[in-house]
Amino acid sequence: MKYKYLFGPVPSRRLGISLGIDLIPLKTCNFNCIYCECGDGAPLYNERKEYIEADEVLKELKEYLSKNSKPEYITFSGSGEPTLNSRIGYLIQEIKKLTDVKICVITNSTNLVNKNMREELRNADLVMPSLNAVLEKSFLKINRPNVNIKLSEIIEGIRKFGDEFQGEIYLEIFMIDEINDSKEELEEFVKILKTIKFTKVQLNSLDRPAPVSWESPMAMEKLETIKNYFKENGIETEIIKKYKSKNEYKAYTEDNEKLITNLLCVRPSTFEDIKEATGLDREILGNYLDIMVKEGIIKTLMEERGIFYTYRNR
Ligand code: SF4
Predict the structure, then answer these.
(1) With a 6 A CB cut-off, is 175 part of the ligand 1 pocket?
(2) How far apart are CA 216 and CA 205, in angstroms?
(3) How many domains does the chain have?
(4) 46 φ/ψ angles, rounded to the nearest 5 degrees
(5) In the chain, fewer beta carbons within 10 Å around the N or the C end?
(6) Same domain for 268 and 194
(7) Which domain holds residue 263?
(8) How far is the CA of 62 from the centre of ligand 1 (A)?
(9) With a 6 A CB cut-off, is 108 part of the ligand 1 pocket?
(10) Looking at residue 208, what is its pLDDT?
(11) What is the rounded distance in angstroms from the CA atom of residue 54 to the CA atom of residue 116?
């Protein structure tokens, strides 16, 4: 059966085998991050509502769990900000009644300032909030938020959530070269992170050029330096490692590689075009493109519409 709201299961470095739930239509988000792969320039949404019917999602999940082996995590993420769906709390509660699989929520943290929202996430096992900047200028540059969103409220929300939540919190910082890696910003990060309770900080970065700004990916040495700086200041930090080769990514198949190269031999395509044409899940496709670029099978081109992937010999 083809599922509308479930994706995967996806082999993930951070979560093992994770079954994704997408609770909102493509690029329903109150941010428009410069590294977002869900498309650029879509209108910003900041209203919480039932974008996708919760009971329909539950129906699919029940069907999935009755026919497949258990994933390690059921993860709310996907093509926008999942906490904008006003029924996420209800869904977490109902999923807990259905299965003992752990629940993870990946969020951009904007709604954590809302007490009801924090309450809705109470039954999740793991929450991964992101905090990509602590200085206003980098926040605006990286996240390009809806006008009603304030950085101070995001920080306050994460802090309150850390105080109240009983599960694990992996706080993600997406590092962008020359934007949020200044001495001033890192010092401010340390000051703020010392006031927040979390399990660990995870440093993420793009392996590919950023879709909007054509920023170059951050070098591993720089990420290591930042990790060490945080650690020296008592902040438990790790770098999210990316798949580097086909051998490393156990789910890699020649069939999927061919699916992608056949398309790119005919025409250069964006991430969304490839996703649409191949039907591959967002995270899986991201892993394939990362590996295929690293192995020189395909290359990237910057065009007016954003980043295009093309076959190396085209
Ligand atoms: S928060 Fe996520 S979905 Fe929203 S713009 Fe940023 S990367 Fe895209």
Answers:
(1) no
(2) 10
(3) 2
(4) -135, 20
(5) N
(6) no
(7) 243-314
(8) 28
(9) yes
(10) 62
(11) 18
